[in-house]
């Protein structure tokens, strides 16, 4: 699976939430996420636990660069009924790979067409906006970048506020 991402610090949380709600046509879905990142040789690997005890194992590759960037990713879902399996896998990955870091956040999710607009409050970091333009199989990277840039403009996010890396990398600094 592929998407085009933009991530940025935000300076006016209430304003960007208002614009995102207008663009999406409705209120957000609020999601609490607790991510453990593991030490890996390439890309990133994390186990994401949700408030309802469900979980998702996420593997992704994405260049650390400003502006819209391609992310290639794989997901393994663990519904609430399989929460013990997710916990067991998390323990195995911690033992084998070692934990790299932990990111806890409250995410407001707004859907705008094929784009997931996230307004995140990240523990120990602050507030951010992330766009994920989920590419359809026939779509090019350039098409996804154009959609992302258009939404960046509509959300009034300045290029100077863009960040190149993942939240876990910011916590490392």
Question: What keyword list fits this structure?
Answer:
173 residues, alpha+beta, Hypothetical Protein Pfu-838710-001, 8-stranded antiparallel beta barrel, 4 helices
Description:
- The chain has 173 residues and is an alpha+beta fold.
- It has one domain (2-172): Hypothetical Protein Pfu-838710-001 (Beta Barrel), CATH 2.40.320.
- Helices cover 27% and strands 43% of the residues.
- It contains four helices and eight strands; from the N terminus they run E-H-E-E-E-E-H-E-E-E-H-H.
- It has helices at 13-24, 83-97, 141-154, 167-172; strands spanning 2-9, 29-38, 44-50, 55-62, 69-78, 99-112, 115-122, 126-134.
- The protein has an eight-stranded antiparallel barrel.
- Strand 6 and strand 7 (115-122) form a beta hairpin.
- The longest helix is centred in the middle third of the chain and has 15 residues, at 83-97.
- The chain starts with a strand and ends with a helix.
What do we call the CATH homologous superfamily? Hypothetical Protein Pfu-838710-001
Number of helices: 4
Q: Quick one: overall form?
A: globular
Which series of helices and strands comes N to C?
A: EHEEEEHEEEHH
Please, how many domains? Answer: 1
Largest sheet report: 8 strands, antiparallel, barrel
Low-confidence stretches: none
The CATH architecture would be Beta Barrel
Biggest sheet, spatial arrangement of strands:
1-5-4-3-2-6-7-8
CATH classification class: Mainly Beta
Number of strands: 8
User: What is the SS-derived class?
Assistant: alpha+beta
Task: Give the rounded overall mean pLDDT.
Answer: 96
Helix coverage percent: 25-40%
User: How far is the first residue's CA from the last residue's CA?
Assistant: 29 Å
